[in-house]
Structure formats: C-alpha cells, structure tokens
Design a protein that fits this description.
Length: 214
Amino acid sequence: MEVAEAQVAILSLLGQVSPGVLPKVIQWLKTSSEIEELTTSNADVLLHNIADDLRNCLPVEAMVISEKQAQENGYVYSSASKLQGIEINAEFCELQEKIITKYHFSDRIQVNHSDICSQKTLLHQADVVVLNNVFEYFLSKEEQIKAWIFMYENLRKKGCLVVTVPSLEESFSKLQINMQLSQWLEEIELDTDIFLGPEMDQEALSDIHLYRVL
C-alpha cells in the first residue's frame, strides 16, 4: 500500500469512529507503544548502538546523561549541514571524537575543546543552540554568570532557536542573574504528551525548553 492509499484508509477508518471516542483514539495513536514498535528505524538502532558504546566508556553516574545525548543525536535526525559542539572537558571531548570517528559522523559534526566564551563568531552564526545543563558541572558560580552574560551579548541572531535543560528562568534564578529574558528570547510551548518510546522519561522531557531569539 502506498502512502496516499494508507492515508485514505486511515481517514476512512477514523471516520467510522463515534465523535465521543475519536479524541481517545487519536491520543492512543500519538502515545501507544504498539505504534512505536511499528516505526522503529535504522536511525533508532544506530542511536542505541551509540548509547551502548557510551555506557562502556563512562562511569555509572554519567550513564543517564550520556544516553540522553545519544538519543538526541542531531546527525541522525537533523538535516543541518553542520553540527558544531563546544566541550570544555577534555575527557568528554575525546570520548565524543571517538564516537564521531567510529560512526563516520565527521562529515557534518565537529567538536571543539574550548570555552564558549571564546566562540563569539560561532554564536553570531548559529541557527540552533542546544544547552543541556551546560555550565553547572564544570564552572564556578562566578564563571557561570560570566558565560551567561557572554551568551546574552552574543547570541543575537534573530530567529535562532535555543534549546535548554533546565529552563533559563531556573538557571538564572539559581545564579541570581538579573537579566530581562523577555527582551532577548520568547519561549515556544512544546507538546510533552507525545510518545517517544517506552524508555523515554516524561519528567526529563518536561525539563526541555525551547526559545526563539527576538
């Protein structure tokens, strides 16, 4: 069955569902693990292999974080021509380089062992910036404040999307940074009710926030 035929068949079937039940059926289609099992792709298999490699390389306390990073790998699910990472920790940088080499990602991915505060040009040009607990593990409070001020001053490309964990409001409140977020970014509401697989942590998903540079 081709795509167009499948779409017609599904719409026809949904048309036979009573209006009171239809919302529940649609919600089931969005969240069912049975549907998820039908859509497992080569990309999913590849990411699980990456996660296995990371488990073998990292200490136990780092596994959860590394698994999320593997699942969100932009190379597999993004059509971006260039994916560039900034990693201040030398050991993590070396690990990422091993993964990039093993899975032949070097045509689109580059990881720089560097401090974000030395990457003004990169921030000026970026279309999407992903910040996952990015400063708190390796920087002192004073260094974190400095890094955020640098981001505020240089991440100014209109329409650039910024993905953060946790929210910027939470990060700033912990550091007591008095910054007018509403004059810099607008938050875009995410649908956290979607089903991303049986291993997905819904609480972790709710920690992801999306912003657009004004």
